[in-house]
Amino acid sequence: TPGHASEPSVDPVAVADALKQLSLEQRSVLVLHHGLDLSVEEVAQMLAIPVGTVKSRLARARAALMPLLADEEVLGHD
């Protein structure tokens, strides 16, 4: 929309490759929360873990994922 900055384009294959490098626990919370748009509470219920565990896994997963996606090629920059 006019006046809004567009988000960087991310290569879906690169994202999938980066996700594969995360632990199953980290990947699960990221996909459920961000990919399927479930709330932290819904993720906790689905995985039968405490809400605090979901939050800490999300934080660690995001921190681990950022350097994997920081490559200029992945973000589509020249």
Strand percentage? under 5%
Distance between the termini: 24 Å
- Helix tally equals 4
Query: What overall form do the CA principal axes indicate?
Result: elongated
Query: How would a crystallographer describe the biggest sheet?
Result: none
Description:
Helix content is about 60%, strand content about 0%. The chain starts with 11 loop residues before the first helix and ends in a 9-residue tail after the last helix. The chain has helices spanning about 10-20, 25-35, 40-45, 50-70. The protein has four helices and no strands. By secondary structure, the chain is an all-alpha fold. Helix 2 packs across helix 4 (about 50-70) and helix 3 (about 40-45) crosses helix 4.
What is the strand and helix layout of this fold?
Layout: H1 12-20, H2 24-35, H3 40-47, H4 51-69
Helix pairs in contact: 2-4, 3-4
List keywords for this structure.
mainly alpha; disordered C terminus; 62% helix; single chain; 0% strand; 4 helices; 78 residues; elongated
Quick overview of this protein structure:
With 78 residues, the protein is an all-alpha fold.
